[in-house]
Amino acid sequence: MTDNDDHVGKPAAVGRRQFLKVAGITTGGVLAAPAILKLASVASAADRTNITFASAKFFGKRTVAEMVDVFNQSQSRILVRYDELPPPSASTEVHQGLVQRLAKKDGSPDVFTQDVVWIAEFAGAGWALPLDEYVTADEAGAYFPGVLAACKWQGKLTALPWYVDSGMLYYRKDLVSSPPETWEQLVAAATDLVKAGKVKIGFSWQAKQAEVLICDLVEFVTSNGGSILGDDGKTVHIADDAAVEAVQFMYDTIEKYKISPPDVRSWDEEPSRTPFTGGDVAFLRNWSYVYSICQDKAASSVVDKVGVAPLPHFEGGKSAACLGGYQYGVNASTKNRDASVEFLKWLSSPETQLLFATELGLAPSRPAVFDSAELGKAQPFMQTLKPVFVGATARPVTPKYSQVSLALQSAVSKAVTNGNVADALKEAKTRLEGIVGT
Question: Tell me, what does this protein do in biology (predicted)?
């Protein structure tokens, strides 16, 4: 710790009205002039405890850098220097960059954002600072239980919630009277719409050999009553009948039913989204950020024509939405622990979560913020997604998740390309047992 760090766990002393004024939001919840864009330093860097904050890049009305400026403007003791990483769509690069830096154990970055699936890995490696002594039971109880649980490793809180996201089904409500509840119903509706010439593509999703393929895999497999790993994190179920049937369906959307083009094998989020907002797709699996684009007349041909619903399920199964979102962590090797924790708690505070929700479209992990009148006025659509978020399904929880993900990406990509599903998943099971069994 430094001599300056005498503010353990105390959020920056900034009132709600002052915060919203600095952030460019009025106390009534209406977005005001972008005062956030021009913020002056309130103290020289030499007079403040300097810490670094590394975060994936997010897109919205504001940037993460501007959010950091709000904190720097709100007090005069800590100066946060922002280190921008690639966007979440390049999760492999973000992960590799963080691993390389945290493994050095030199204290940099002091605070970081992490995909929810990296929490176990970073904690298991001793890179993430345990946070229980800084977060009271009442404070912890203010988050969605599922997100808070995902921030723990072996019973210890090693991350603090930022935002929640999950997969969902976008559909053309001007073309279908109600969204499909089963995958079979989706196939039927998509086939009819393509045959009628109303759309070029029935169903757009992401089969690129990347992390998003695993997100889609979790949703298909879980909605058929299957799983990838058991609750113990060591038993492998990817070659079970439920998983084989689900991956076979993924292949069949392309080759049997022909409601998805072969191009989906190279699509991640944005390439799959573009034809949907261009008016050429009936159904799309994607994340919550897509809705605001759908409503943007400058970027969308389907303004006011889009509905959102839980993803379909197989007969006898239940809808499953892959839990997404990035969460906050503190470097266990930081030399500025107290300043880092103070900034961390500010980032995860109700006021800051509201700012991220209204300015970057990132859904808050606090129910009170989710249900607030301010959010309802600024992002009414977001509030309708609460049932989808609350029931989200986690990807396999293991400190070796990155290895598990890469093995699955290779196997599932091969399966949806050549159709030899059972053989590909048997190979994947063998590889995963070698990874998680050691």
Answer: Part of the ABC transporter complex MalEFGK involved in maltose/maltodextrin import. Binds maltose and higher maltodextrins.
For residues 282 and 198, give the distance between their C-alpha atoms in angstroms, rounded to a whole number: 8
As given in the structure block, the two tokens for residue 245 are 């049937």
Burial classification of residue 315, based on how many CB atoms lie within 10 Å of its CB (0-12 exposed, 13-18 middle, 19 or more buried)? exposed
CA distance 438 to 436: 6
DSSP string, 56-110: E---SSS-HHHHHHHHHHH-SSEEEEEEEEPPGGGHHHHHHHHHHHHTTTS--SS
Angle formed by the axes of helices 350-360 and 16-23, to 10°? 20
Q: For the chain, what is the total number of helices (H) and then of strands (E)? A: 19, 12
Distance of CA 119 to the CA centre of its chain: 13
| Structure tokens given for 250 | 């993924």
Q: Cα separation of 210 and 233, whole Å?
A: 21
Q: What is the pTM of this model?
A: 0.79
| Residue bearing tokens 């129910």 | 367
DSSP code, position 31? B
Of 140, 149, 145, 119, residue with least CA distance to 330: 119
Torsion of CA 424, 429, 430, 433, to 10 degrees: 160
pLDDT in tens, 303-317: 999 999 999 999 999
Q: Are 170 and 302 in contact (CB under 8 A)?
A: no
3-state secondary structure of 229: strand
Query: 192: buried, middle or exposed (CB in 10 Å: 19+, 13-18, 0-12)?
Result: middle
Element (H, E) at 168: strand 168-172
- pLDDT of 23 strictly over 70: no
pLDDT tens, position by position, 384-414:
888 788 768 889 888 899 899 999 999 999 9
